[in-house]
Amino acid sequence: MTPAFEFDGQRVEAREGQTIAGALIASGRAAWRTAAGAERGVFCGIGVCQDCVVTVNGAAGVRACLRSACDGDVVTPEER
Ligand code: FES
C-alpha cells in the first residue's frame, strides 16, 4: 500500500519509508512554510536547521526531513 497523507488539505502520496519532506518535494513543492515572509522547505536535510518544520497530527515543530510519511497523517504548514 502506498502511504498517503494530507498536506494543507491535499492528498500527497509517498513511497514506503520516504520522509514527509521527500514526499512533498516529489509532489512538486519546494517550500511549504514561511518565516519572516521568506519561503522555507529543506535546507540541511539532516534535522539541524529546522527550516522544514511542519505540524503532524497536531504536534508542532516536526522536522519533515526526518519524519517518515505515514498513511493517514495530517500535515499542516507552519509559520514562524
Ligand atoms: S531541512 Fe534542516 S531540519 Fe529539516
Summary of the model, kept short:
By secondary structure, this protein is mainly beta. 9% of the residues lie in helices and 38% in strands.
Word description of this protein:
With 80 residues, this protein is mostly beta strands. The chain has a single domain (4-77), classed as Ubiquitin-like (UB roll) (Roll), CATH 3.10.20.30. Helix content is 9%, strand content 38%. The chain is built from one helix and seven strands; from the N terminus they run ββαβββββ. It has one helix at residues 20-26, and strands at 4-7, 10-13, 31-35, 38-41, 53-56, 59-63, 74-77. The strands form two sheets. It has a five-stranded mixed sheet, covered by helices on one side. The chain has a two-stranded antiparallel ribbon with strand order 3-4. A hairpin with a 2-residue loop joins strand 1 and strand 2. The radius of gyration is 11 Å and the shape is globular. The model has no long low-confidence stretch (mean pLDDT 95). Residues 42-45, 47-52, 63, 65 line the site of FE2/S2 (inorganic) cluster.
The H-level CATH homologous superfamily, spelled out, is Beta-grasp domain
Specify the number of helices. 1
Q: What would you report as the Rg, rounded to the nearest angstrom?
A: 11 Å
CATH topology: Ubiquitin-like (UB roll)
Which architecture would the CATH scheme give at its second level? Answer: Roll
Number of domains: 1
Walk across the major sheet and give the strand order.
2-1-7-5-6
Relative helix content: under 10%
CA(first)-CA(last) distance: 34 Å
Structural class: mainly beta
